[in-house]
Amino acid sequence: QELFYMCEFCSLGPNSNKDRDSTDPVFSGFFSADAIERAVREASETSQANHTAQRQEVTDSNAHIRDDSGSSLASSTGSEDDKCGYDEDDDGTSSSEGDVVGASNQAPHCSYSVMSMASAHEFDDFRLSTPSQQSIEELQPRKDEPNLYNIPSFAYPEYRPLSTILKVLLGSLSIVASSKLNVVKKTSILKVIVIATSTFILSSTFVQDMFYAPSRITTRTLSRNQWLPSPLSKYSIISTSVPSELHQEATTLLMDSIGVHFLEYENSDILTPVEYKFDAIHFNHGFGASSLSWLPVIPSLVKKIGGKIGIAHDAPGFGFTDRPSASGKKAGLVPFSSAGNAALGNSLLNERLKTIEESHVKKVALFGHSMGCASTLKMALTLPTDVEKTIVLVAPALVGNLRNGNRDVSPTAVNVDAPMAKATEVKESIKEITLSQPAKIRNFVRVSTAALRRVILDPILIYMLKRVVGQPKFWNKGLRAVWGDPEKLSDTDALRFQWTSIGQGWENGLLAFTRSRLFSICPYSGGELQLLKHVAKMKNTKVIIVQGTNDPVVPLRMSRKIAESLEEVQFVEIDGSGHDPFEEDVEDFVNKIEEVL
Q1: What is the distance between the alpha carbons of residues 482 and 491, in angstroms, rounded to a whole number?
Q2: Based on the number of CB atoms within 10 Å of its own CB, is 225 exposed (0-12), middle (13-18) or buried (19 or more)?
Q3: Most buried of 58, 252, 463, 517, CB within 10 angstroms?
Q4: How far is CA 230 from each of CA 113, 146, 205, 223, 470, rounded to the nearest angstrom?
Q5: How much is the pTM?
């Protein structure tokens, strides 16, 4: 078999050199998405050239069979030119375990890329019983949202229902089993009915979990096969750190490299740099969402307010950004904190700003929604002071107390943060009791708690999340509850949220994010409302709060109170909108932003 290791240090690497040392820091950023994509493409071209003759031979053979029998034995999916399956090695055995079968949305033919066995399970963890369908799947855009693809036909975001025949079979077996129990133990009829019903529910749940569960696919597999949710989707490996300004320690916190999924839109309507009003516009999403929530508004808003480029990334724990292993340790939870998310956002933003001439005054617009507003403010805090910043906070879910003279502005009463604040108080009380104990007892409690969480608590919570989110119409029902006018909600709106539920490990990521909030990882001194106050008073900074009048999540009166206490903050209401005004009425939101800017 051909082996292709995607590394600069192997004999096949385009810049290989046997004298190189892989520990040399000059290669610290090698494994970028572009480098990996280039390596896969080169391997695909080489492999396809080697297999052309064999595929032609198979095609001729299928044509001959069709001529003789009137039917084709080739794959039933796609046209003849699109047929694609497992190649056979010289010994006639299938090479499916060593070969990675991929496809390009831009080409009608099959694309074969070959990599090492060790890499195969990491990049191609998702395999199908029908490889030909997986290979040639080309995602189709939604008619009402061209920048959003439909979920691949082989991927299931929800639990699939059991067939009627299977239900009848399981029901019959449950009745037979409970009837035999009645004969043996002379159980009452009522008890037999209860036992039969319980047996049917348990057996149906077991079969559904084993054979009809939602799909889970890694972002790398989606990226490699061009199955990411949008034409604007990109995936890059980012190495960054959390500066000391964003946490209560004097040192910078280094974060491990992490694969980040983001949307990137370039405005081609403006030809000269001097015509741009903003060199870059960044968007942070809220709790339970992803960058896709901003997708409907990004193109029109970037064009309307004169942006050069628009970027929206998925926060760790959400969307298709990688979920680093938290391992229950606080250090492992840094990427899931608002500070870690801000560091990733600034890394993407600064990479775009580097291309701008130094003589040019850099201008950026930073949009945040709900809980994502904290990350937006932390991005603004750590951007260079000479960069002009316009910050738009949409329905800001910020917690803490804002000291204004001799009075306090209470924290925003956000549904998702209220229980977290209470849990933090309980945690502090438990911490005080624990610290008063001897070291051996503290260590025992720590190890026991971690074991309990990993072995019992986390698996139960993960399964519950999988079951709840895997229910039909889950996102549709959830969004209707927070929109100002639920009748405006379309299937495409719900699909933007449902898309990310096929991502591998999203349940673990959500739990890690929740723990980062409970443990107050990288908190800002004074709280998030004090952070808003400090950012609003910065040089070259403008802050605007935008909120729908029918927001059921973040009370309108709280946002008004915050804006009234800070003269630097401008407050804008959108009549009739709920918690997601930029999704509920794109045109109205864009016009409001253009007007206020």
Answers
A1: 16
A2: buried
A3: 517
A4: 23, 9, 33, 11, 22
A5: 0.73
